[in-house]
Structures are given as C-alpha cells and as structure tokens.
Amino acid sequence: MKRLLYVVAMLLLLSCGSQKNVTVRMNTTAGVIDLCLYDETPQHRDNFVKLVKEHRYDSLLFHRVIKDFMIQGGDPESKNAPAGVLLGEGDLGYTVEAEFMPNVHFHRRGVLAAAREGDDVNPSKASSAIQFYIVWGKVYTAEQLAAYKDSYKRRTGRELVLTPEQEIAYTSVGGTPHLDGAYTVFGEVVKGLDVVEKIQGVPCDRNDRPLQDVRILDVKIIK
Fold this sequence. Notes:
This protein is an alpha+beta fold. Helices cover 24% and strands 22% of the residues.
C-alpha cells in the first residue's frame, strides 16, 4: 500500500517539479487548464511554445471529444467553423518527429499528447504540428487490465507490455494504455483536471464534435 501511494504521488508530480519545465495556461470557455511541457520532449515543447507565442491556439475549438477517452483540439480550421462541420484535418504544413518515452511519459489521465495521421500514411508516427489531445481514459481493476492486455493481443497479435509503474497508474489514476509508444506524450495537466473532466462529458454529435462549441480563448506562458 505504501508503494502504491508513493508511485501515485510520483505520477502526479512526474517531472514537472523541475524549474526548467515550461508551464502554459489555457483559458477555455469551460475553465482554466494549466499544462506543464516536458523538457524530455524538447521538439514538442519548443514547437508548442512557438505556437503559443504566435497565438495559434487562440479561438480554436476542442473539436473532438470522446467520453472516458480524451479531448482533442488545435485544428486551425476550427476557428470559424460553422456548427456541425466535420473537423480534424487542419494542419500547418509540417510535422514534429516522434519523441516516444513510453516507460516514462505514458497515457495516464491528464497527460498532454500530440495527435497525428494514421500509420498507413505516416509510418514514422510523426506528430501533427498543432493538434493535441488531453487523456482522460478509465481506471482499470487489475483483472480488467489483464483482460484488456489479452484482448489487445488477440486483436493485434502483439503483447501489450506495461511497466509496474504503468500498471499502477492505469489501476489508480486511469488512462489509455493502448496508445503508449504510438503517440508522443509531451506534457501534463498540473491544474484544471476538473475542467478536462467537464469537457470530456459534454454532448457530442456522431463525429464526436461537441454540440455546443468548447473554445480555447487563449494560451499564455506563465512559467
């Protein structure tokens, strides 16, 4: 039990105790979300900071929201998109090289990760320059996680290998383990997880776009 509490506490802090990490504040129509960007993923960190300084995220939508999974935003075409329009294809004409660290920064609840195009057109798994998502996922029991790994192997023919830290996270904090090692995790929510929870529960249409727009008002560097 002591080890469980210790690991959970470390997961919640992760590497954002360092003074070198950049923290940004995302003001949204649902509330404020503060995000720490990891130093260990410098290309993603620097690209995100660049976009924040250019005000690229201001007025964009959370255009894709899936309950108990994640909230996604950053499509440049969402800024003035009419209601009901399918979004998610907007980009900036470049990608960011993958920076996978699945044994350190993985898809536990509250992490910030880069969206990307599928493997069929993007075998290197390079990240979108601007689109991102914040993980919500679910909390698994040990039995559910074991069954999930068995199901994953049957579907893909590959083992889903998790570290003890990942297993503890997914059975205590929650998350989306099948995304580990396939999408770059480059930050985490340090304040405003309740806002993420609020957004991930909004009603959506059949394309997972919220029926009422959830907008990023602005993003600023605060540390």
